Amino acid sequence: MNWGVHDVVSLEQYRENLLGVREAIPQMLELFHRFDIHATWAIVGMLYCENKRELLDSLPSLRPNYENSNFSPYKKLNDVGKNEGEDPFHYAKSLIRKIEKYPNQEIATHTFSHYYCLEKGQNEKSFEADLQAALKIANANGHVVKSLVFPRNQSNQSYLQVCKKYGIQCFRGNELSWPYRASRFHKEGVMKRALRLLDSYLNVCGHDTYPIFEVETEPIVNLPSSRFLRPYIAKLKILEPLRLRRIKKSITHAAQKGEVFHLWWHPHNFGKDIEENIQFLTEILQLVSKLRSEYDFESLSMGEASALVLKMNG
User: What residues form DSSP beta bridges with 263?
Assistant: First the structure.
């Protein structure tokens, strides 16, 4: 899961989701514990800060100068509150502490500032500074980070050597199908978005599962995603059985073939319609539990999966 509140959409658009995440995360953690799910939480570094002073002191020395200023959280620092009690949108240390108390939950990075690696106005040096800041604050909180999730799925191959330099072992790559290829925000296009939405309900692009021995390892391990767990949408309620069947069929395919199925979502996706989203997730995890018994289908965090890949390529 990738977790951060700094995005190109306005805070008002996601206010309900971001407040609801404080109820949704504990429920997700309980589900993961109940079904022995090993999950990866990719956290935006800014969320670690306890107050405004720590936030300002933790900022990277070099920052991106995006052509589209809306991409930069640094332009909005004046709007950030003093602490988590006053501003539950930009601080989340209490939730991070809750996550780390549960077994088999990996803390990964989603960069320090929700950094966009393909947008104009940023470069390798500003990315490196951002990654340094992300790892510094994670390490200060006792977390050794081995996994990275690129914000907006903007995986930039030229930055992987930088990741390796700072001890990152793996990243979440994109599905291979055309609608999922990494691109700039405004280059997405209506067609790509429409195909991704359709693919959530019908098998348009395949299962996107893969044998673990085919995973790319250089310069770091690439663990491509298989499916984005879209949140419940009341207007599309009639299609919910199709959405569930789509995911279940792909998970079953992976278990039967002995392949990897990589499911991901943002915690704030569950911040609205929490009951419906949690029930949907429960049904998925019930299937995973069944497949574990039938096919020895393992649940692994990104860090665990990449360690297994590296061991196999020993």
Answer: 227
C-alpha 228/C-alpha 34 separation (Å) is: 22
User: Residue 13 — very low, low, confident or very high, per pLDDT cuts 50/70/90?
Assistant: low
169, 307 contact by CB (below 8 A)? yes
C-beta pairs of 215-220 under 8 Å, 24+ apart in sequence: 215/260, 215/309, 216/173, 217/309, 217/310, 217/313, 219/160, 219/161, 219/163, 219/164, 220/160, 220/163, 220/164, 220/168, 220/169, 220/170, 220/171, 220/306
What pLDDT score was predicted for residue 187?
67
Q: What is the pTM of this model?
A: 0.94
Percent of the chain at pLDDT exceeding 90: 82
Burial 64-94, CB ≥16 within 10 A → b, else e: bebeeeebbbeeeeeebeebbeeebbbbbbe
Res. 8: pLDDT tops 60: no
CA distances for 101 relative to 33, 96, 136, 138, 177, angstroms = 11, 9, 21, 15, 37
Which ranges of 142-188 would DSSP assign to H, the alpha helix?
Answer: 160-165
Rounded-to-integer distance, Cα 270 and Cα 234, Å: 13
CATH placement of domain 2-312:
3.20.20.370
Question: H/E element holding 309?
Answer: helix 302-312
Rounded CA-CA distance 65/121 in Å is 5
**Cα angle, residue 169 at apex, residues 165 and 173 outer, rounded to 5°:** 110
Q: Which of 244, 227, 276, 231 shows the shortest CA–CA distance to 14?
A: 231
User: Kind and range of the H or E element at 255?
Assistant: helix 240-257
pLDDT at position 12 is: 56
Q: Bridge-partner residues for 107, per DSSP?
A: 41
- The span from the CA of 172 to the CA of 117, in Å, is 14
Query: Is the pLDDT confidence value at 1 over 60?
Result: no
Longest dimension (CA), the chain: 54
